[in-house]
Please model this.
Amino acid sequence: MTQPLLEVRGLKKYFPIRGGVLRRQIGEVKAVDGVDLTVGRGETVAIVGESGCGKSTTGRAIMHLEPPTAGEVLFHHDELGPVDLAAGDPRTLKAVRPHLQIVFQDPFASLDSRMTVGSVIAEPLQINRVVSGRQLRDRVAELLTLVGLRPEHASRYPHAFSGGQRQRIGIARAIALNPDLIVCDEAVSALDVSVQAQVLNLLEDLQRRLNLAYLFISHDLSVINHISDRVVVMYVGRVVETGTAEQIFSRPQHPYTEALLAAVPQPDPRVRTQARILSGDVPSPANPPSGCHFHPRCPYAQRICSEEEPPMIERADGRRVACHFADVLHLNGVAVAGRDDRPGAAADAVQQGSVAG
Model:
């Protein structure tokens, strides 16, 4: 891994459950329950899991859009050094905020329909007093060009653009302050496959040009496989396995990871029948199962799985897995080629549907 840019340690985000006439707290939703992850400079780390696993809440807690309940979010600032964003100090957050940006899932809801595109992109530059006047207009034009739009689009309103174009506008806004890290929260999931490919091409190109790091949150295995350097697998608020994309896809060591990969179509239909298809629904984070949260759905579960939470163990190859039987299970992965770093290669693979979630 490259030099750490972001280190998340024991991150938790609990939401209170209130009831009764006095609206007293009667429980809590453990949306994020002790997440650890690291993102290096210029690296793409993906968080994957089913809906409700806590991956988007993790991203929002890292950005302090949802104040964390506990844990550390250390951002390595060039001048300030390691800064704990979870502490929530307003002055520190203001200093670091320009270096962390986010691209949201819905390109229609994330842009203010009352503002022109130029105003949307210029807003972070104006708030942080980076440039003004002619320089501001030139910077907006430069950003529009960087994301594949024309400078004259600055005078139009968001409703005049397609979903893919709106997401490009959102990306232009995110890179306006030259950030080091961008959280992409399901950034392409609302787009058609062909448009997804174009936006992925853009993200890859910007990463090379600007040395960006991405925390890429998605449920789409095709995107995860081809754009990520490392993968974090989450289930009911917890990390169950981490590793390189090649390790996770070809040699999973947690049954939940194997179950996710079982949904990946292969050119040879006989390959798919070797994997176990996941059944049942994700448990509620308000009332998760005891021990290993995955044990009610796990085909390999034994008594210890329901009684004891498995520790997160680091393997000799650098991956980490939380499973009592990781040493003895031989789980099925999917056949994957090595990551292709040619421009557009990831998006081409997604568009061809070689791997789909």
Observations:
- The chain has two domains: 4-229, 233-321.
- The radius of gyration is 21 Å.
- Residues 353-357 have pLDDT under 50 and may be disordered.
- Residues 233-321 form one domain.
